[in-house]
Amino acid sequence: MNSHDATCAAILPHLKAGDWLTLLLGGVCVVLLTIELWSGGLADKAIIRSGGKIFREVPLSRDQQIEVPGPLGTSVIAIKQRKARIVSDPSPRQYCVRQGWLQQAGEIALCLPNQVSVELMGSQKKYDSLNY
Amino acid sequence: MTASIIKLDTTAADHHIARMAAVALGLTILENAIPSPLPGVKPGLANIVTLIVLARYGWRAAAWVSLLRVVAGSLLFGSFLAPGFFLSLSGALCSLLVLACAQHLPPRWFGPVSHSIYAAFAHIAGQMAVVYLWLIPHSGIAYLIPIFAIAALVFGTVNGLIAARFMDNKTDCPQITQIHTD
């Protein structure tokens, strides 16, 4: 008897029909919870801020490139296939550029030195990673 | 002057509950030595004892063992009345509440594994409720729920299997305590 058979012999007799049902129920519960809580919801517009004020609100449905002026220079924001990213920015450390594509509602990229940010919004306002 | 001795009349059942709680306490200490990737994700080995006591001696004894373990464990770790204690307590109370219902499931189809899974889910539900209502009143903790739910399912199943296997091997009740306490 190999170790797999031994494992089966140790486990299977202790699982009755109802136990399998409970396991299934628990599994479904976990999957539903994960889907519900870990998907940020679909984003349908991007809010671009400059110097703390809303610069533009653009829908994600149309691919475009937007140039946003800031104190250090111009940040370039691209919207493509319902995703948004900061293509280039004059900030020294380039954190917001390296963040890459934003896709889900609540995601946000900040270029603090240039005071430019892009935030994705869904149909309803959900909590994001910044508020507390 | 004679030393005054306070003697409590204890029954064999009391001794038995105390022994079981001591075993559960041992498992709690053992478990605290295991590093956890995320605070709150623990196997809950002591619940194996609760499950066995529930199956053998009923819900009242299981509640005693479980709550004694929580209080004595917090005293041992110095966390009595600290947030961690209330988290354990709320988890244990919710589990016991659910076990009170789950024990009436038809035993032909439902065994300790089912009890264990339901209790594990109740445990994290109780803890998350305390965390949300008292410690971190922010909806951001919802992000952690799937992790805790997976842990509850996995550890609940494993603990249930261990309890079932234990009761399967040793059908004689006193023998169990013997093996534990030796």
Tags for this model:
heterodimer; A: 132 residues; alpha+beta; mini-chromosome maintenance (MCM) complex, domain 2; four-stranded antiparallel beta sheet; three-stranded antiparallel beta sheet; 3 helices; 7 strands; B: 182 residues; mainly alpha; Arp2/3 complex 21 kDa subunit ARPC3; 7 helices; globular; disordered C terminus
Gist of the model:
The complex is a heterodimer of chains A (132) and B (182). With 132 residues, chain A is α+β, with helices and mostly antiparallel strands.
Helix content of chain B: over 70%
What is the fold named in CATH at topology level of the largest domain in chain A? mini-chromosome maintenance (MCM) complex, domain 2
Distance between the termini of chain A: 56 Å
Q: Largest sheet of chain B, described in full? A: none
Largest sheet of chain A: 4 strands, antiparallel
Q: Give the number of domains of chain A.
A: 2
Distance between the termini of chain B: 39 Å
Give the ordered list of helices and strands of chain B. Answer: HHHHHHH
For the CA atoms, what is the radius of gyration of chain A?
23 Å
Q: What is the strand content of chain A?
A: 25-35%
Mean residue pLDDT of chain A: 85
By DSSP (H or I, 4+ residues per run), the number of helices of chain A equals 3
Number of helices of chain B: 7
- List low-pLDDT spans of chain A: none
Radius of gyration of chain B: 17 Å
What is the multimeric organization of the chains shown?
Answer: heterodimer
